[in-house]
Specification:
The protein is built from two helices and 53 strands. By secondary structure, it is mainly β. The chain has five domains: 194 residues; 110 residues, Immunoglobulin-like (Sandwich), CATH 2.60.40.10; 96 residues, Immunoglobulins (Immunoglobulin-like), CATH 2.60.40; 78 residues, Immunoglobulin-like; 155 residues, TolB, C-terminal domain (Neuraminidase, 6 Propeller), CATH 2.120.10. The strands form 13 sheets. Strands 1, 3, 5, 10, 12 and 13 form a six-stranded antiparallel beta sheet that branches. Strands 15, 17, 18, 20, 21 and 22 form a six-stranded mixed beta sheet that branches. A hairpin with a 2-residue loop joins strand 44 and strand 45. The longest helix is centred in the N-terminal third of the chain and has 12 residues.
């Protein structure tokens, strides 16, 4: 067990910064003050302190920690609380209004959580702080966790804030700051800890050299460069893990994508940016890993850089078609399969038209068409008749336009035509913010309708008791609109809300006998269903967690287990439900349902020397999320996000196929009992695996046809 104390002037490293802000001086900074003030009977005040933790080894286990403050004047009549700061404040510029020049607190004085500060109390100053005395703030378990995350790099160290604006019934209280003349009176952080291992004492993280920030990459290779740690013992086997993120945030743990694993002895790697990575908040990270799987801190680019693609994928359309005659409208139907996953959620379509006969150059016909907003009709009833209309369709996002698609030789004929329409329109409805149970009888409903021949003219909302199929309540027919309201009628019970559409030929679906409806089966306050499995007569559903709930596993409509993380796949193997979990470090853990509870699967492989290493962190060497599971050849196979195919026979986890390791992610694996099909992201290639007569797995790469 060891103890380290951090205090300005006490040692060469581990110094602190501090300041205070107060409500009666909105634009003043007190970063150079020799005192820190916390509240007053006539104004509110917050004190900020941040210690430099960069020289503390990241492999420590913190046993306890305390903050010592010297009370200069005043007497506390209430309790003041310690929180983590969520803003990257500049201690020389922070004021009541701003945490940095031109950057406002969400609420003046660092009062809002989680924007300005955390909402969990990490420690407190009790009602015994009197003048000329030292006080101690013992960090609670939450405080120790925050401190650990700062040291390991799992979270950004923005320091602590001391405040209590709820009850400021104190006469006056101040502490000596980091600039106080007496060194012993300056704020001191003391940490009692033990070393988990000697890894981080042996060598440091690599130092990232490029990209270092402010670069702009346009669909090109990125030559990542770093300096290796100088103190690598020749007897230690290490390698480097390289990450990228396009959403770096100074105030929270970044969402990292691992892109490469590089042996030591190398100081550069050429990365071809994935087409899904775009934006101006990109950073590269790199860390060291040893043969035991122990990791150093991540070294990041010092500031953000930007990535944009050279081109978006071209749109694909089912309708309209070339050499076809249209009358009063043109139906538009997109094929989104080539777009989804290759463009940002902010992408949209835009359509232009032209006609040389009508002396019309390219003119905007429709824009801001969201992906998935079709089918729809474009009204051309006012267009002059001609047979040489052309359409140009592009996909657009905030900084890129795709190669256009042209549809030529379209005829528009608005003279002497009529339409015969005998087929009713189709569509669907969705209750906004739909909940499984509600006492609010006023609903907001989104509506979509489509009719191939004449278009949708009107709609009507209907309500019926779902159990008895009785008590039909109908609204009035109204002109089609994207949103409508409906007040639930009748007594409590299960209600079915349905939509009836009418086209311009007055066609409606007169009977529901042959109609298909999708109804909500299970809803947990709109939490995401991360995985589901239908097995025989039972439906298993895994729901993601939220701020108030852990992830949960349901069988049919009944809760059967609480999960340790997001479930990415479910599969029965040997009559047992196996669950792949994505943990907080973006790693895959294999679990299974046993006796009504979820347990971690053990790996009895001889490569693990003790029981601690056998908890399927048997997957830790792959260090990847499980995207899909399938049973083939009496073995449970798992497709990983890093491109590896691994197997579990009930005894150990083994890598079966790694040709695309760290190059392409496995998106899915399926079997027809004779062959295992392995699908990868962003490629038309699939890998076919079969077992030869000699019992060896054979792999064949085949190209699929679009």
């Amino acid at each position: 067990m060891s103890i380290i104390s951090l205090q300005n002037g006490l040692n060469a490293t581990g110094g602190s910064e501090d300041t205070y802000i107060k409500s009666d001086s909105l634009s003043s900074n007190y970063g150079s003050s020799t005192s820190l003030f916390v509240n007053n009977s006539s104004f509110d005040s917050s004190a900020f302190i941040k210690w430099d933790l960069s020289n503390i080894p990241s492999n420590i286990t913190i046993i306890s920690a305390k903050i010592e403050l010297f009370v200069e004047t005043g007497e506390a009549q209430n309790t003041n609380y310690l929180y983590k700061v969520n803003r990257k404040i500049d201690f020389s510029k922070a004021t009541w209004n701003n945490y940095n020049t031109g950057l406002l607190w969400e609420t003046g004085g660092c009062q809002s959580s989680p924007e300005d500060r955390g909402d969990i109390v990490l420690g407190q100053i009790d009602e015994n702080a009197t003048s000329n005395n030292k006080i101690e703030i013992e960090l609670n378990d939450e405080g120790l966790s925050v401190l650990t995350n700062w040291i390991t790099g799992a979270d950004i160290n923005n320091g602590f804030v001391i405040q209590n604006f709820v009850d400021n019934s104190i006469s006056f209280i101040s502490f000596s700051s980091s600039e106080a003349a007496i060194i012993n009176n300056r704020p001191k952080l003391t940490i009692t800890y033990s070393l988990s291992n000697e890894f981080n004492n042996i060598f440091d993280s690599p130092t990232l050299l490029y990209p270092d920030g402010n670069e702009f990459f346009v669909g090109e290779d990125i030559n990542i460069q770093w300096n290796e740690p100088l103190n690598i013992p020749s007897t230690v086997l290490i390698w480097y893990e390289i990450f990228i993120t396009d959403s770096f945030n100074d105030y929270s743990k970044p969402d990292l994508l691992q892109i490469a694993t590089i042996p030591s002895g190398n100081s550069s790697y050429i990365y071809t940016a994935h087409k899904n990575l775009k934006g101006d908040k990109c950073r590269i990270g790199i860390r060291t890993v040893n043969h035991e799987g122990l990791r150093s801190k991540i070294s990041f680019s010092s500031t953000n850089f930007s990535i944009t693609n050279k081109e978006l994928p071209s749109p694909s359309l089912v309708s309209p078609e070339p050499n076809v005659t249209y009358f009063s409208y043109i139906p538009v139907v997109f094929d989104h399969s080539s777009i989804i996953g290759r463009s940002s959620q902010r992408s949209f379509y835009q359509i232009y038209y032209k006609s040389e006969t009508q002396s019309i150059d390219w003119k905007l016909l429709r824009d801001n068409i969201l992906v998935g907003a079709d089918p729809f009709n474009i009204d051309v009833s006012s267009f002059s008749t001609s047979s040489d209309y052309s359409l140009k369709i592009e996909l657009v996002d905030e900084d890129t336009v795709s190669p256009p698609v042209f549809i030529n030789d379209i005829t528009i004929n608005n003279i002497n035509y009529f339409l015969i329409d005998t087929i009713p329109p189709v569509g669907h409805i969705k209750i906004q913010n739909n909940q499984e149970y509600t006492k609010d009888k006023s609903l907001v409903i989104s509506i979509k309708g489509y009719d191939e021949t004449t278009g949708v003219k009107e709609f009507r909302i209907e309500q019926i008791d779902a159990v008895s199929n009785e008590n039909l309540q109908t609204g009035e027919y109204s002109a089609l609109s994207p949103l409508a309201t409906w007040d639930i009628k009748g007594d409590d019970g299960v209600k079915l809300i349905q939509l009836r559409l009418k086209d311009y030929g007055d066609n409606i679906i007169s009977s529901d006998i042959n109609a298909n409806y999708f109804r909500t089966y299970k809803n947990l306050d709109n939490r995401e269903v991360t995985s589901f499995l239908y097995d025989k007569n039972d439906l298993y559903m895994a729901f993601n967690g939220d701020d108030d709930n852990d992830p949960q596993l349901y069988k049919n409509l009944s809760l059967i287990a609480t999960l340790d993380g997001e479930a990415t796949a479910l599969k029965f193997y040997n009559d047992t439900l196996y669950i792949s979990i994505k943990d907080d470090e973006n790693k895959g853990i294999l679990q299974r349902l046993s006796g009504g509870s979820v347990e971690v699967v053990m790996d009895n492989s001889s490569q693990y020397s003790n029981s601690i290493n056998t908890i399927v962190n048997s997957l830790y060497s792959s260090d990847s999320v499980i995207n899909s599971m399938e049973v083939f050849d009496d073995t449970l196979f798992m497709g990983l996000e890093n491109g590896e195919l691994v197997s579990f026979s009930g005894y150990s986890v083994d890598v079966v196929y790694d040709t695309y390791s760290n190059i392409r992610s496995i998106s899915n694996i399926k079997t027809d009992e004779n062959i295992l099909y392995i699908y990868f992201e962003n490629t038309t290639e699939i890998v076919i695996m079969n077992k030869t007569v000699s019992g060896v797995y054979n792999f064949t790469i085949v190209e699929t046809v679009n």
